[in-house]
Amino acid sequence: MTATAAPRSRRLTIRPGLERLIYPLGLAISIIIVWEIATRGGLIKRILLAPFSSVVGSLVDGFFIRGWIWPHLGATLSVWIVGYLLAVIAGIAVGLLVGMSSRASKMIQPWLNGIYVTPDIALVPIFIIWFGIGFEFKIWYVFLAGFFFVAVNTLTGVKASEGRFIRVARHFGASRRKMIATVVLPGSLPYIITGLRQAAGRSLVGVVAAEFVASNTGIGFMVSVAGQTFDTARVMAGIFILITAGIGTAEILRRVERRFDRWRV
Amino acid sequence: MTTAHPDSGALLEARGVRMDYERRRDGQIVTAVEGLDLSVAEGEFVSIVGPSGCGKTTFLRIVDGQVRATGGEVLLDGRPIEEVRRDRAMVFQEPLLFPWFSVVRNVAYGLECQDVPLAEAARRAEPYIELVGLAKFKHHYPHELSGGMQQRANLARALTVNPRLLLMDEPFSALDAQTRELMQRELLRIWEEWKRTVLFVTHQIGEAVYLSDRVIVMSGAPGRVVADITVELPRPRPLEVKRTPRFQEYEDEIWHLIERQVVMNFEQSGGGEEGR
Amino acid sequence: MKPIVRWFRRHDTFWLPVTSLLMFLAAWQFASTTGIVQERFFSSPVGVVQAGIKTVQDDRFWNDVSISGSEFAVGYAAAVIVAIPFGVVAALYRRLGYAVEPFLNGLNATPRIALLPLIVLWAGIGWPATTVTVFIGVFMPIAINAFYAVRTVDRGLLTVANHFGASQRRKLRTLVLPSVVPFVLAGARLGIGRGVLGVVIGEFYSSTSGLGNFIFVAGSTLQIDKIIFGALFMTTIALVAFIALERVERRVGSWRPDLEFGT
Fold it and tell me: How far apart are CA C237 and CA C243, in angstroms?
């Protein structure tokens, strides 16, 4: 949807679609060429930067030839998805409940804003003590990393939805249930989706962090081991997978988000 | 031209209405409306005009039941307004259509709130959608409508609950001048077909004269009724009425009544618009 | 209504959060003291305070603080110095902007800590790797905000400036800068959280000193109270910086509509 960006600048009206495609593509291709030449030519040590082609080779090998990526990918995805879904369900529920009670939201809201500064990774050791190293501690930590983002955004949405449209509902004598169904829920949906997007990113960070610190499986673990054994191509293959997952999810959710932008009140 | 209104038989009766509120800035008690008397008969189209801040919107909110007057009484059909639940409907200043609902569902919203099943509510909304001329757009969403069309839907939503008293809070103030004129004509057409009581708040004198049987002129602050003018222009009124001398006499008369107040407001606020 | 009740009600945005915190602490303490939860696994407010008192008397802790502090300070400062010109320049030149924008957004959506093993290879284990991790974390929100801030400078106002024949420099000073500064500050504010996160993960992964390592060691020796104290210590400092920046931001950009890029 380039249309949303168009009114920002008059200058963008000149072949915007094409230029927006060509320039980044050109930049990417030239980086790859320089990267390949510099590493193959010995300008940069291969331990520091594997040639682009060997990263691709590592990916092909890991996915299709020897298939060593699959179990790690499966482990990472399952932790991510389960932890994320738990965070989404709990976050929306808590956000709605707290948001609809003005006293409860006053009690909790200032604390929730702590999410922007709290290094939740610092709590990983506690989770390890509670749940032991393995699937369970990762799930709960990933849950924690995502939960607050969903909850805070849901809460913000509920607060925002209490603006103009509540007046209409009140005027027509809507019951509390009707008000929630027709004003609060739809009005907070765009905010909830923003929360889903932020939480998806944060919980992926959480998975990787947990796998770095204490795990014997997962892409993060794979990357970490490869780093310690100086298999830079494999490190970069893992990074590529994580970047793709991160960008892909964010992009999908961003599209959904834009679709509901009109609902912001 | 000022007429005494009958004591009985009025649909809406306001006696000595007073509204005080605590100003948030300094906690001082401000009187927005004071000693307001007004009576509206069944089937009448009554407008309230007055300068910014004369308490006309406050009065409308009291009649709607959104706020409770601090003094006096407001009776609807002889009963205090607080006891009457669903006899009024408001056409809001902004359209305030739910962006997540189609036109039909928006128009049916009042009925939906009365726990009428959705399908039936939609069926009952249909004639009103047609009445305001949105039949072709009933499955559209608000953002796909122009400002004038959104205001029509806003009107249809209020009509659909079949109120005895229709409250309109400067409903055309956000429209451009041409659309505004056309909407005024539309409103009269609809009103003549629908024949119900309307209480219309505006600050545009011409609009009030064109639409109304009676124009209540308020002065602020605190808001009081300074004149109650019966408009004796024949109906139906085409837009051309606005260019007749009779019409302009009415406009002049009302303008003179509030001129001093308006000029004073203008100078106090440095020429800005009212900040609500 | 009694005056004290009214006073409480009027300031309930302050008192209600305080009450909820006190209630939480009381419940936690109660649960630990009565053995509803094992203190060994859940610690207690008193336990955390005791651990804190003991910890701040230990010189090694302050050594950790200074190491983490310097990692954060250097990484953060470097990010600010590089990210602002980067974002501004990328936005000023249209083609450069097109080329860079998807990468900025993409990288922002990425779990950048995945780069850690690579960073360790490049920068070396310990202090350098952690500092670079902080840098990368802080860089993104600031660069993105600077980029979009320049991009969204009001076209209407630009027309006005051009109409009155404002020079390039005057436009920069009277229009571009005032519009950009609040956004950059917002980016810098978001960057605090990212930077602290960078310190912890960087030290967890690659360091034998610093606050992250302090927490990690406390974890492997099952000292929950010390972990919580360490986390609280960092959060508090980050929060103070966050609030301070928020104040500055409010002063500089009170006209600004509530917009936020990134995260």
Answer: 10
Kindly report the number of other CB atoms within 10 A of residue A189's CB atom.
18
Q: Inform me whether the pLDDT recorded for C256 exceeds 70.
A: no
- Give me C163's structure tokens: 């109409």
Nearest chain A Cα distance for residue C10, angstroms: 13
CA distances from residue A86 to A112, B109, C137 in whole angstroms, order as listed: 18, 35, 26
**Token pair 């801030």 in the structure block, residue:** C149
Give residues with Cβ within 8 angstroms of B231, minimum separation 6: B209, B212, B213, B214, B215, B250
Query: Where is pLDDT greater, at B155 or C154?
Result: B155
Contact (CB<8Å) C110/A247: yes
Please enumerate in sequence order all residues whose Cβ is within 8 A of that of B162, keeping only pairs 6 or more positions apart, or say none: none
Helices A135-161 and A69-100, axial angle in degrees (round to 10): 40
Q: Which pLDDT score is estimated for B269? A: 66
Q: Show the tokens assigned to B126.
A: 């249909």
Tell me the chain A residues in contact with residue C218 when contact means C-beta distances shorter than 8 Å: 125
| CB contact A253 to C (< 8 Å) | no
* Mean pLDDT for the stretch of residues C117-131: 92
Question: Cβ of A262 and B98 within 8 Å?
Answer: no
Q: Is B94 on the interface with A (CB under 8 A)?
A: yes
Q: Are B144 and B138 in contact (CB under 8 A)?
A: no
Task: Give the model confidence (pLDDT) of C13-56 as tens digits.
Answer: 788 888 889 999 999 999 999 988 888 888 999 999 999 999 99
Task: State the nearest Cα–Cα gap between A173 and chain B, in angstroms.
Answer: 6
Q: Is A125 on the interface with C (CB under 8 A)?
A: yes
CB contact under 8 A, A110 and C17: yes
Mean per-residue pLDDT of chain A? 88
Looking at residues B213-219, what average pLDDT do you find? Answer: 91
Residues A218-245, mean pLDDT to the nearest whole number: 93
- As to burial, measured by CB atoms within 10 angstroms (0-12 exposed, 13-18 middle, 19+ buried), residue B236 is exposed
Min Cα separation A188/chain B (Å): 11
* C 14-43 residues inside an 8 A Cβ radius of A: 16-17, 19-21, 41
Query: Residue B100 half-sphere exposure, CB side, CA atoms within 13 Å?
Result: 18
Distance CA B226, CA A118 (A): 62
- What is the H or E stretch that residue A218 is in? none
pLDDT at C225 over 60: yes
- pLDDT(B16) > 70: yes
pLDDT (0 to 100) of residue B42:
92
User: How would you write chain B as a 3-class SS string?
Assistant: CECCCCCCCEEEEEEEEEEEEECCCCCCEEEEEEEEEEEEECCCEEEEECCCCCCHHHHHHHHHCCCCCCEEEEEECCEEHHHCCCCEEEECCCCCCCCCCCHHHHHCHHHHHCCCCHHHHHHHHHHHHHHCCCHHHCCCCHHHCCHHHHHHHHHHHHHHCCCCEEEEECCCCCCCHHHHHHHHHHHHHHHHHHCCEEEEECCCHHHHHHHCCEEEEEECCCEEEEEEEECCCCCCCCHHHHHCHHHHHHHHHHHHHHHHHHHHHHHHCCCCCCCC
State the complex-level ipTM.
0.85
| Predicted local confidence at residue B270, as pLDDT | 62
